[in-house]
């Protein structure tokens, strides 16, 4: 069994509003930071997982992303897999 | 003015418990995915920002991370800056 490190990045789809991001954007302005054109908040999930091959881990992560990590109606996901 | 894309990654410090991550880990098991050794949830903030130079943007992002994005008592942050 090999060990893999997976980083999953989950973002709201571009068409979905991000009120928390908007709030942070306006708070940034109040802190004196100018020039922010857009600010979106997403999630990152870091997983250490064992598997026989990368393709095997990929299958598991796809399942987890679709069923558990992301709400695919409003969110997109992508991930990177690194063998440890 | 140049435009930069910044990705900020915020993680709980290793010594800080992540109950939400533990819950997802055990839910993954119930979904039939075996072999997960650890699972931690973090945040990702994607910012598009204007600035004169990269070092200028870096200064702004450091300020935002310390004061607004992360709770540095329990969280670490890192970021990447890409010129668009």
Describe the protein's topology.
The structure is a homodimer of 84-residue chains.
Chain A: E1 2-12, H1 19-30, E2 36-51, H2 54-69, E3 75-83
Antiparallel strand pairs in A: 1-2, 1-3
Notable characteristics:
elongated; 84 residues; Mth169, Chain: A; alpha+beta; three-stranded antiparallel β-sheet; 3 strands; homodimer; 2 helices
Instruction: Record the strand order, biggest sheet of chain A.
Output: 2-1-3
Q: How many domains in all of chain A?
A: 1
The helix-and-strand class of chain A reads: alpha+beta
Q: Overall pLDDT of chain A, averaged?
A: 96
Shape of chain A: elongated
The pair of chains with the biggest contact is: A-B, 33 and 33 residues
- What is the multimeric organization of the chains shown? homodimer
The CATH architecture designation of chain A is 2-Layer Sandwich
Query: What low-confidence regions of chain A span 5 or more consecutive residues with pLDDT below 50?
Result: none
Fraction of residues in β-strands of chain A: 35-45%
- Strand tally of chain A is 3
